[in-house]
């Protein structure tokens, strides 16, 4: 029997727990110790990826709104240590400045280069990862040191001094993959560890990832089985896959809570009213790697160019090259046919990415596997159609608003892209229907997370 709980069940459980408190009392929130490992490593990137935006959203909401104590946890030469809320607030603000998340879109150099390219200006070079951020121009490890030392030198406190019944929260996988970073939990049985696992893809589809990722994910599952009191997942599909993996190693008793991911305020309907390029274009968002199936889209674009020549739509790959991307990236850069109509744009800030997606004819995401699928929901949030691979996670995240196609059928993708390029009555009707999409925002999402944490 699957040990997963729907958002409705979480809310009911939380309400029932409140009803069972003594008359005249309220449920006491427990302190939270939040792992900062993902944020610290994310500071080495010029701009945040989707997982870093979710991690940053957790940090910001907990620091600003959690009514009990909130600490940040980091590994140090003296072992795992925790740091007070005030210090983490300073580090959070410095990280936002590094990533340029609060600057104007006009300050995003990558976005400006992409817009020039879409408008037909001569492109001397591909936009470089990090042009978006002034902070990104500082040496990476200087940035890392500055982030750690923001607010002055501090050794933090030993985990043995955490308040009783603290909840340890880690949503980033990285810290969970190293048992040495979790060993302190054995000495603090009063502390409940709540972890977020995003998917079980490396164990289900090892052919799509680097072998080291498979080994890392095995450690994630083993450490989750050993230490987790509860697990948060982004979809029921991910929960089912994770449940299967945990059950196989003796962790099937751990409750799983599937909570759909929230969307940042940068992805708002207001972006849909902004100017668009004179040339129709499509956007693919995410790391360039075999799992994302961008190579299939390149074959579609070769056919579009053969059929329409210079009139073919353009394609922007908004993401960084990852494992197995060499072939696709080299093909784009060296092909006379593709180089004028396909662009790799790494390092867009979140506001710039939202503006780019808002102006596109559609977002394309032909992935073979996903745990959630954040870019399609972001696209729908700004009124842009989303053409997606027909997999359970996409169906669950985008619902009736997505356009679903077989990721192995390039003919179907070619037909859909051609249809969406033209400004037809059916396209305008599609945009009107998408305007009814209502994404989950951070306040509502964290209320669900609070239900999980309070329900422990």
UniProtKB/TrEMBL annotation:
One of its GO terms (biological process) is lipopolysaccharide biosynthetic process. Keywords: Transferase. Residues 279-434 form the Glycosyl transferase family domain. Coiled coil: none annotated. SUPFAM superfamilies: UDP-Glycosyltransferase/glycogen phosphorylase (SSF53756). GO terms for molecular function: glycosyltransferase activity. InterPro entries: Glyco_trans_1. This is Glycosyltransferase family 4 protein.
